[in-house]
Design goal:
Layout: E1 3-9, H1 16-30, E2 34-40, H2 47-57, E3 61-66, H3 72-81, E4 87-90, H4 101-109, E5 117-122, H5 129-145, E6 154-161, H6 162-168, H7 178-184, E7 189-194, H8 206-220, H9 223-253, H10 260-292, E8 300-304
């Protein structure tokens, strides 16, 4: 197999057929030896029915039906595990990235003999003001706390060699931080500046974005835990200085420090810091709790694939 195209389905019904037509036309310009893998991530609409219709009429289409909604990144990892092409092109099917970009990514991937990944980076982040600001803050916070840097406005869309994909899916995290795993897998990677449209809606709400930021940070750095130690040290140091100043004022000037308000404010301030720090520790503990359960990150209900020389097995991923 020369090329595998992987995409996920979640409320994707309005886009699937146009995506299929355009990505197929583009793939045929590159090679006749390709496959399109649709991963149904428990989509509540009729995305699965449309994908199965395409499967029935085109032998190059494969459909991986997950038993429920496991999340975008878990669905991606599942799809990658079934990709058998020498090159694997990953993209969303919502048409925000033009399917015709496949040809550009293909040419860029073959511009150097040792290039394993070409990933897309938006020229300019689209959407309303909050979306743009929150997206920029995500990368700023992550790059500030993480031990490695992530390209701003990187997209899911990318083309990868099979050897890279095989090593990427070796990561067994249950809470998948996809962009971070792509970076730490290594190999020779290159960014490609692309245009990305904004369809005006998203399945990622504010809470989902906050959860994503937290997941990324706790997955790739222990710096928040280190900062707790330094914060405690700093508070202790200034508290000791304040204690010395009170003793000094009492002995040399006879001044008593009065005021219940200042005491209450201090208690609330220190209490808030303690609770916040305990929350950070709790997040790391919950991460450990989830990972040690060793549950499958996705379960495949059924694989729709015609018999080929490749061996396809229904499995828990």
């Amino acid at each position: 197999m020369k090329l595998s195209i992987v995409t996920t389905l979640y409320y994707s019904a309005p886009y699937i057929e146009e995506f299929y037509r355009r990505i197929s036309d583009t793939a045929q310009k590159i090679t006749r030896d390709y496959e399109i893998i649709f991963v149904n991530d428990g989509s509540p609409d009729n995305s699965l029915e449309i994908a199965l219709y395409l499967y029935e009429k085109d032998e190059k289409v494969k459909v991986v039906d997950l038993s429920r909604n496991f999340g975008h990144y878990r669905a991606i990892f599942t799809g990658l595990s079934y990709a058998s092409g020498e090159y694997v092109y990953l993209t969303d099917c919502d048409l925000e990235e033009k399917p015709e970009l496949l040809e550009i990514f293909w040419e860029e991937a073959h511009s150097s003999f040792d290039l394993d990944v070409v990933y897309g980076v938006q020229k300019e982040r689209k959407g309303h003001l909050f979306r743009r600001i929150s997206g920029s803050l995500f990368y700023d916070i992550f790059n500030l706390l993480s031990d490695f840097k992530m390209s701003k406005n990187a997209t899911i869309t990318r083309i990868m060699t099979q050897r890279y994909v095989r090593d990427l899916i070796k990561h067994q995290e249950r809470e998948i931080a996809f962009a971070g795993l792509c970076i730490i897998t290594g190999y020779n990677q290159k960014s490609l500046c692309i245009e990305k449209e904004y369809k005006g809606s998203t399945t990622y709400g504010l809470l989902s974005r906050i959860k994503t930021v937290i997941n990324f940070v706790v997955s790739f750095t222990s710096r928040p835990l280190e900062q707790i130690f330094y914060l405690g040290l700093l508070i202790t140091f200034f508290s000791f200085l304040y204690f010395l100043s009170i003793i000094f004022q009492k002995i040399f000037f006879g001044i008593n420090v009065l005021g219940w308000s200042s005491i209450i404010v201090s208690i609330w301030f220190i209490g808030g810091i303690i609770i916040f720090n305990l929350g950070i520790i709790g997040i790391y503990l919950s991460k450990i709790f989830i990972e040690t359960k060793n549950r499958p990150y996705a379960i495949v209900r059924k694989l729709y694939a015609r018999k080929t020389n490749d061996r396809y097995i229904e499995k828990d991923c």
